[in-house]
Design a protein that fits this description.
The protein is mostly beta strands. The chain has 2 domains: 119 residues, Sandwich (Immunoglobulin-like); 96 residues, Immunoglobulins (Immunoglobulin-like, Sandwich). It contains 1 helix and 20 strands.
Length: 240
């Protein structure tokens, strides 16, 4: 009796990852300017990649104004740097007393592989573009000395917490911790409050403690921690 040995070959596709990167995680478009350029770098030692760029509004709809990215698609050679230019076409109809937000999409497309059974992935990132009207311009020193995020208020309203933004700027909060240096309480989700707006949050005020620490994202994408103080049903920046 003969036994036949059967060899089962399981083919697991290799994976090719894109290597393009942008020089920022968010863009502030100064209303006085006509355009702003983003740097794109290809860290691959040997492969070129295609970089595709476009804009979407808050509804996730692709748009061609008031901002456009050029070129919409370009080839980036290995270890080389290029630029994507963001131009404003028509901002006259945008609010001039507050910021507006749009979403810059950046897709990294790898070259076609010459090898069989290779799974190639296109990697897409989405970053925010904040249009800041010229009337709201602040220098870096002014922002550092008096950040508008300090005006954020958290207040209890029934069974929920309301974030109040009385400023003409967007405020993005990435963390709230009852203790400095610790992680956010369980269930916390980062949020962004539009200018002159309120936002209902998914936690109760007693979860943040009486002296929480709020972490916000600044113009450069950095995380900044500020101490808050809660009295009765309202939390605001702590007195120095």
């Amino acid at each position: 009796m003969f036994k036949k040995l059967i060899s089962l070959c399981l083919i697991i596709p290799s994976v090719s990852y894109a290597s393009l990167s942008l020089d920022r995680t968010r863009t502030i478009f100064d209303g006085k300017e006509k355009s702003v350029s983003l740097r794109v770098y290809n860290s691959s030692e040997r492969l070129p990649f295609l970089a595709q760029s476009w804009f979407e509004n808050e509804k996730g709809e692709k748009i061609e104004e008031p901002f456009i990215a050029t070129p919409p698609i370009q080839r980036v050679e290995p270890k080389q740097q290029t630029q994507v230019k963001i131009e404003k076409l028509n901002t006259a109809e945008l609010p001039q007393d507050r910021e507006s937000v749009y979403y810059f999409n950046f897709r990294q497309i790898p070259p076609k592989s010459e090898k069989p059974n290779v799974l190639q992935l296109t990697v897409q990132t989405k970053t925010k573009l904040f249009y800041r009207p010229a009337s709201l311009f602040m220098s870096g020193t002014e922002i550092s000395n008096n950040p508008w995020q300090k005006k954020l208020i958290l207040k209890a309203s029934g069974q929920e917490v309301i974030a109040v933004n009385p400023t003409p700027y967007y405020i993005t909060v990435s963390a709230i911790s009852p203790i400095k240096g610790k992680e956010s309480f369980e269930g916390f989700e980062a949020f962004m409050v539009a200018p002159f707006s309120n936002l209902s949050l998914n936690f109760k005020l007693n979860q943040v403690g009486t002296k929480p620490f709020i972490t916000y994202i600044d113009d450069y994408g950095s995380k900044v921690v500020m101490p808050f103080s809660c009295v009765n049903s309202e939390c605001g920046i702590a007195s120095e």
